[in-house]
Amino acid sequence: MSETITFTIDGKKIPAKKGQTIIRAAEEAGVYIPRLCWLKDLIPGGACRVCTVLVNGRPQAACTQPAAGGIVVQNETEELFRWRKNIVAMLFVEGNHYCMFCEKSGNCELQAVAYRFGITAPKYPHQFPQRAVDASHPDVLIDHNRCILCWRCARTARVKDGKPIFGVVNRGIDSQLAVGPEQLGETELKATDKAVEACPVGALMKKRVGYAVPVGKRLYDHEPIGSDIEKAGNPA
Ligand code: FES
């Protein structure tokens, strides 16, 4: 039987299995820690830092930091809210995100987190990078304008689909999602692969299914992202 430890998040006692990350233990206890690059059952990437919490007063990524007995975690402070909000605000201006024209609108985690944080207008100047769309695949496209470099597709393709299709090339502001051959159409990717579902934004999209769900019935139309986790922890 695995050892159980206890720690606190904002004063609430959280049980955790030894080695479990803070975000995972929090989720099981009904505490939502915002995240973008983390996906359940996938090795954490630690790429976005939206999940930053304070652990004994020091900033740590909740998705990579293992829980330890007796640690004091803060998830809801004004400072953390400001940091996370700034990260999300930067993601919006670093790429070209036009939610009103995006097929992922209403089902997009970046948009949903922004709404949860109360972001309604750009905080920083738009960079308007020139990025390509790879539509070479018959059933799936990559729109680099919307990619937030979370690596969820790359990790999922490798671990769950058994296809090391995606990687990231270049550095810093020039970083970009890339595929092994030159174009997506030359890869073994299938529209049914888990990697396609793993994209939190509209960067990796199935063709010919855009706007299939009407406004009002989309994933985040009624409740903020994270509500499912909070409800599971606090059943009515
Ligand atoms: S969710 Fe933890 S760094 Fe992205």
Bound small molecules, deduplicated: FE2/S2 (inorganic) cluster
Secondary structure category = alpha+beta
Total number of helical segments? Answer: 6
The largest sheet is: 5 strands, mixed
List the helices and strands in order: EEHEEEHHEEHEEHEH
Number of domains: 2
How many DSSP-defined strands? 10
**What distance separates the N and C termini?**
31 Å
Mean pLDDT level? 95
CATH class of the largest domain: Alpha Beta
Low-confidence stretches: none
Determine Rg (CA atoms, Å).
18 Å
Q: What percentage of residues falls in helices of 4 or more residues?
A: 10-25%
Strand content: 15-25%
> Strand order within the widest sheet?
2-1-5-3-4
What general form does the structure show? globular
CATH domain fold name of the largest domain: Alpha-Beta Plaits
CATH architecture annotation name of the largest domain: 2-Layer Sandwich
Summarize the structure.
By secondary structure, the chain is an alpha+beta fold. It has helices spanning 22-28, 78-94, 109-116, 152-159, 194-198, 227-233, and strands spanning 4-9, 12-17, 52-55, 58-61, 72-74, 133-134, 140-143, 166-169, 176-179, 204-206. Strand 8 (166-169) and strand 9 (176-179) form a beta hairpin.
Question: Which features does this protein show?
Answer:
2 domains, 5-stranded mixed β-sheet, 3-stranded antiparallel β-sheet, binds FE2/S2 (inorganic) cluster, Alpha-Beta Plaits, Ubiquitin-like (UB roll), 17% strand, 10 strands, 236 residues, alpha+beta
